[in-house]
Amino acid sequence: MIANFFNRTLYNKLLLAFIVVGFLPFFIFYLYVIYWGEETITQRLIDEQSIQLQKIVDNVNNHILSLEKELKFISQLDVMDDIISEDIDKRIARLLIQKKEDIALDVSLFVLDNKGTFISSSDKSLLEQHFMYMGKLRNTDKYFVRKNELYICSKIFASFDKAKRLGYLVMQYNLENLNRYLVHREGIHTSIWSKKNAIIIGDKENFSLDLTKDFSSEILQEHLLNYKKLSPPLQEWYVIYAVDKTIALGFLYNLLYVILYIIPIALIIIIVIGIISSKNIIKPLLELTSSAESITKTKDYTTKVMIDSEDEIGRLSYAFNELLGTTNKALVALEEENKLRLKRFIELTEIFNTIIQTKDEDECINTSIQEMQKLTHGQKLNFTKNSLETQNAIALLVDDFENDEKVYFGSIEIDADKMGDTNEEKFYRSIVSMIVLQLERIRLVEKTMQASRAKSAFISNMSHELRTPLNAIIGFTQYILVYEELNEEQNEMIGNIENSAQYLLEMINGILDIAKIEAGKMEAHFDRMDIVSLLQDIYAMLEPLAEQKSLTFQLDTGDMEELSISSDAKLVKQIVINMVSNAIKFTQTGGINISFVQKEQTIEIRIKDTGIGIAKEDLEKLFKDFTQVENVMQKKHKGTGLGLSLSKKLANLLHGDLVLKSEGLGRGSEIVVTLPCIQ
Fold first, then answer.
1. How many CB atoms within 10 Å of residue 335?
2. Cα gap 670→521, rounded to integer Å
3. What is the pLDDT of residue 415?
4. Cα separation of 49 and 56, whole Å?
5. Integer Cα distance of 48 and 355 in angstroms
6. Among 240, 320, 349, 382, which residue's beta carbon has the most beta carbons within 10 A?
7. Which residues, 6 or more positions from 205, have their beta carbon under 8 angstroms from its beta carbon?
8. Which residues partner with 146 through β-bridges?
9. CATH classification of 527-676 is 3.40.50.300, yes or no?
10. Between 676 and 558, whose confidence is greater?
């Protein structure tokens, strides 16, 4: 509703503009203070905290490093040879006590032999004990941490034999000593946290932190916080540096309160000035608006607006009059241009429709020239096979699909006056592009027809030339096997010849069937058939093959004795025989089960076996022509790779489908043949 009020008149918009322009600086400044100012100050404070945090981290790391160096120096003193005599004269003990006093921290120094027995210590209470972390000590070179205790270690070698290790010098360092490096001031919270042991050294302020990075800065609800990971041996410990927001951003919050008090007073002053100025500006514009509305209603663009002043409004009125004159001329020209464009579009469409009806290249060129001459009204328009090097000629470049390149076909020469006009040139080039597309289409159709004819001729020749001698070979080999006396080797050789001939004949028959399907020459002859009787015939035909391999072979028709549907019994039988034969071929143990399920619209014939199975990623591959999956059984039983592909195409021809299912290698497979249930 407020938006409608300001959009209704220019007066309201001007008033809004005055308010916005006057109020905007205050608003921007306020936003800057709230967002960018706070962000800038916050970032600066975080940067300063990062510097202080780095100093603390450096101090702690350097402190630990200095202790390590001191311990290593002590371990190399000759006095450590007294470990052999178990520090009988207490020289090592006095040295350790003196070093503890020099360090002046909560630490304990002690020397262990290689078995973990205390030899000397700065604390007498540790003597005559066994070091409980000896296993950890042997596995480390310098240090390890247990709870809030840091153990700094140095191996001790004999001064007379650097290869002989006498024991270990260990400093037990209480990590509470690090509190001396933290900052202790009001509003600043510094501490050292152990991510692993949940131990806090220093300020016990509880921050909900997810310590996942080596270094990070975070802006919490009440604090500005930085944290950074320490170096080994305290790599599981973080230094936390936090500052209270109320102290860090106190000046900024006070400035915001002052701005909030000033804004209402400034807004009232801006509104008063805006109302007065808007009235003075809008009055002549209202008069100009009234004249413009009158012209819009009458559609009389020859009308002129009266000019009463020489100021900006007067110049606007003069420009408005000029605009009316220009608009009137443009409307007249546009109307003529639209008529011409519509005429050209209709002509172009008619030419395209005529060109795409042509059947060969000569007809395409002659028809195109005739149609284009209608547009040029008999002016010069020629087609030539020779290459023309003139600006008035448009070349026809068509695709050479065999070499994948553009080749020159010819040129069309058009009148120079037509080519001198850019729009006319584009018009004629569009026609030439259509001619080129039609020529390419004619060539592609011709190539396709040639390929189809060659394929048909090849299949026909193969059928005549190969099937006849193959049938003769099969007949002769069967005759020899039955009527001739052959030894075992000869019998095997003749058997191989027969098997190879049968394999070739099977492949040829499959190829011919697939070619017939793809050419649309194989038709399904739908008639009434009993699906139960058909399955029983197939079962009786193939049962001997299953018995030869000692496989169980079952046909499950349930209580159904007869089920009549409309389909092609010959094709259905061919599909099922192919699939059951495959199942028997690729099953070594177990058996094959044939069943069918009647649904509302379909019948599903299921052939399930316990054979070698198929990997899931290979299921779709088997439906491609000449495709077999590499496996042990495939090497033993050769096939054409056409069975599944042909059977699926036959099922589709019957308006059904064929699906292959398997849970993987060695888990059997299932063929589901779906046929429409037309009763």
1. 9
2. 30
3. 65
4. 11
5. 80
6. 240
7. 189, 191, 242
8. 149
9. no
10. 676
**Token digits for 419?**
């080519």
Task: List the domain boundaries for the chain.
Answer: 301-355, 357-522, 527-676
For residues 77 and 83, the answer to whether their CB atoms sit within 8 Å is no
Half-sphere exposure of residue 65: CA atoms within 13 angstroms, side-chain side:
9
Backbone CA torsion sign across 137, 143, 144, 149: positive
Q: What is the DSSP string of 566-588?
A: EE-HHHHHHHHHHHHHHHHHT--
**Rounded Cα gap, residues 151 and 357, in angstroms:** 96
pLDDT surpasses 80 at 403:
no
Q: Is-cis flag, bond preceding 233, omega within 30?
A: yes
Query: Given the structure tokens 């409608």, which residue do they identify?
Result: 4
Question: Considering only CA atoms, which of 10, 665, 595 is closest in space to residue 288?
Answer: 10
CA distance 381 to 502: 66
More confident residue, 409 or 583: 583
pLDDT of 243 > 60? The answer is yes
The tokens for 491 are 């019998």
Cβ of 110: how many Cβ atoms within 10 Å?
22
Average pLDDT for 585-609 = 87
Which amino acid would we find at residue 8? R
Contact 353, 371 (CB under 8 A): no
Half-sphere exposure (Cβ direction) of 54: Cα atoms closer than 13 Å: 8
Bridge partners, residue 145, by sequence: 150
Structure tokens at 274: 């805006």
Backbone angles phi, psi at 236, to 5 degrees: -95, 5
What pLDDT, in 10s, does the model give residues 374-393? Answer: 766 655 667 776 776 566 67
Two tokens at 114? 């290689």
- C-alpha span between 41 and 53 (Å, rounded): 18
Residue 550 backbone zone (phi > 0: left; psi -120 to 50: alpha; other: beta): left
How far apart (Å, rounded) are the C-alpha atoms in residues 155 and 138?
10
Do residues 307 and 317 make contact, with C-beta atoms less than 8 angstroms apart? Answer: yes
Helix axes 361-376, 422-483, angle to 10 degrees: 170
Place of tokens 């009235």: 279
The structure's pTM equals 0.38
Give 57-73 as a DSSP string: HHHHHHHHHHHHHHHHH
The two structure tokens encoding residue 673: 């043949």
Residue whose C-alpha is closest to residue 605's, from 638, 573, 561, 652: 573
Sign of the alpha-carbon dihedral angle for 367, 369, 373, 375: positive
Give, to the nearest 10 degrees, the angle between helix 569-585 and helix 643-653.
Answer: 150
Q: Give 678's Cβ-side CA count (13 Å radius).
A: 12
- Alpha-carbon Rg of the chain, whole angstroms? 50
Residue partners of 615: CB distance under 8 A and separation at least 6: 629, 662, 664, 665
Question: What's the pLDDT tens digit per position in 609-657?
Answer: 988 888 777 766 666 654 555 544 444 444 555 667 778 888 888 888 8
Q: Which two tokens stand for residue 193?
A: 């946290």
Q: What is the DSSP string of 82-105?
A: GGTTTTTT-HHHHHHHHHHHHHTS
**Mode of pairing for the β-strands spanning 657-661 and 669-676:** antiparallel
Q: Characterize the bridge pairing of strands 118-121 and 107-113.
A: antiparallel
pLDDT of residue 632: 41
SS3 assignment, position 233: coil
Q: How far apart are the first and last CA of the chain?
A: 69
Task: Give the DSSP H or E segment for 399.
Answer: strand 393-400
